[in-house]
Amino acid sequence: MSLSEEISLYADLTVDIEVELDRRVLRMREILDLKPGVVLKMSRSAGDNIDIYFGGTLAAFGEIVVVEDTVAVRITDWNIEVG
What we know:
By secondary structure, the protein is mainly beta. The chain has two helices and four strands. The protein has helices at 3-8, 28-32, and strands at residues 17-19, 49-54, 57-67, 70-78. Strands 1-2-3-4 form a four-stranded antiparallel β-sheet, with no helix packed on it. A hairpin with a 2-residue loop joins strand 2 (49-54) and strand 3. The longest helix is centred in the N-terminal third of the chain and has 6 residues, at 3-8. The radius of gyration is 18 Å and the shape is elongated.
């Protein structure tokens, strides 16, 4: 069976994708004071490199981009070994 035939067997599987843009520590008082619509400023910005996890496994690398008025992720490299 060729590699593309093997991969096609998994084409319809659903996989969770996780992209961590940043982390921030807040005091409980600050969390309780949050109102709908509040914007939390983070230290990461467009162009920064990030890790991308598929099903909890580091699978790719990317960068933060802004498309119109939305933050998005561009995949720049894969971390999947084929063997």
